[in-house]
């Protein structure tokens, strides 16, 4: 069996950053391996050819492939090992990995593992959209791959369901490819996409954004022939007699992402129902010692810059684990709890052996205006942050500094909550 | 081309007849309007092998159900098709429904169904702990089972082809004439086949074919059933097929494991105007979910991965129409094959093939081979077997569909065996049938189809005709 200090599963932005940081922090034996399913390193960034990546991390605006390339170059320079077109089919709690590629089955033993498998898109079926099942129905990611990587046109007239950043960006992308985007349909009364993207991707091209609208039926026998949409009330229920037919041959679904944790389950890792990813502490250690998680497999991010930073932390601690596993023993955690308007918080725990500054990332459960996010512990408010607007689509983060950490009562939970002003 | 017998329609009934005909030394073929087998009711039904307590005694439904159930296990073994005899339960909430269970039990006994028993609450909750605690009793049928309806159709097709039959795809019958010896069957695109015996297995369209020949006048009413497929759970919520008590509309909504490890919920029953109306509706889907949840309260919409509907070919005769027409010699109708049609199909195949062989005085085919092997599946092999397979075929180590662990080898093999469309690959290999529904593997499957069939990707369809996925190539790599 091959042995590595740290094995990274997934060669997207999270995996690349975690691998580099593990490599930097290892002493002596520096064997790090990245295992990637696709033909290239870089993950989904390779098909995100629009700009807007790296504003926070590099202070400049890059495309997805450019952003990925900067990390891939470092991986190559440092001669970090990687396998492409290689599929991990099993991970055990003993940190044994079975991977498969055209050469055969590979069994690998790792001191520590970083899970960075990313996420998948919710589908038309998952949101139970009635109608027929013709050709011409795509997820936004599929469309992006066909258009940006393979160079095909996928239709002539399209309707996009979902107004998160991916839906908005694909509305612009389709328009630039000569596909008429009839509408972007959003069931919520607000878009979960960035304001900047609504302006640059819809307004600039005159594409209508239909808020509080639902796609209620897909029509067409062989190829999509149109969709019926309707207005919804505040309970998201269809309002009778508001139905409207839109003729189109293409429907794109951009209705949310789901962390891909099938392998995590095989390894017996405890998952958080709300994030869909593993429960982790501030070292990004999962419930299985020596297995870490970061990026979209942990929780779905808005910005790749945040994925990179999170993955660096995970990679660093994975390297530390391989040298000092005793620092990650049981019963050394206090909980970080999401309450009152906070849907989830990551990390969900703090490791008492690593009381070092870290970032809490969280999402709210609804649209809030003029609210205060507080972080409290043992009945004492440690941090208060005023926000004029908070939406579920925008990930929030608050840094827990050394000063705050020094005030912590370690017998009590850290509570993140939201109050209206 | 001149044939001894031609079957119209490549569903499970048509393919069963075709395969059984290859036991004889005959020149036979099937004409199918779509590009693949199992494109109608055979791809969209519950996949249940019924025990036989439902049909009224003395009907063709009762006869072929019982015969089919008895034959099923053997045929699935020969054809390497999944079949699990997991048993079924019809569950009852009150005394009125318990009376219906009693009726079903008696009818089943008269039909010759073995092992039927009414079970009490204690048994039910011990054996199906997730079912509603409101339930009072259940009829247990140990010889009910589950199979994969389109895989059975594909297996029958492959075995028929192995044994010398032909299937002509894209052949939409538009006119049928008869001279002294032959039926002249014409397709919309101008192709013609001539045959001594014509067998009508056109599903929901069987009445129209019968009318074209000037034969028996009956009507097929399309009756739609909608379904949910749930993601593979770590532990199945039910161990058996769970039916609710039947109504005049049919066997009611069931919750059942599939042979692939998913959970199936449905169908409802609604007459629709069009024989092609396989759309799902909000009302239908809501109805199914509410009813199913009464029996299995833990059911969650979060687990849904896809929804679909199928058409039952409901005849106005209230029974299967099987046999040579009274007025048109050598024309055999096999029509109105609604539930329990899948179970019955294997028995109907044998019965019709016997009629044909008698009429033509056919000799046995000495080379008939009843065995067919399924494609080797990465997901089903041990690591040692996988390693062996990869050594022989490196493409076995290239995983294309990550949700269902389908290798490139399986897709190439499916193409070799006749898959021409994305859905054809899906039904043969499960690529695209998992939780991401082809989100990742669709472009890869298309790459392989394009390479193996030597066609441009813009020519690839989802399921034939105009179901093109890509519309134009914008640039070359």
Automatic annotation (TrEMBL), chain A:
Residues 4-314 form the FAD/NAD(P)-binding domain. It comes from the Bacteria. The keyword Oxidoreductase applies. GO terms for molecular function: oxidoreductase activity. It holds the Pfam family Pyr_redox_2. The keyword Glycoprotein does not apply. It comes from Caldicellulosiruptor owensensis (strain ATCC 700167 / DSM 13100 / OL). Gene3D superfamilies: FAD/NAD(P)-binding domain. PANTHER family: ANAEROBIC GLYCEROL-3-PHOSPHATE DEHYDROGENASE SUBUNIT B. This is FAD-dependent pyridine nucleotide-disulfide oxidoreductase. Keywords: Oxidoreductase.
From TrEMBL, chain B:
It comes from the Bacteria. Residues 4-354 form the FAD dependent oxidoreductase domain. Residues 399-450 form the BFD-like [2Fe-2S]-binding domain. It holds the Pfam family DAO. This is FAD dependent oxidoreductase.
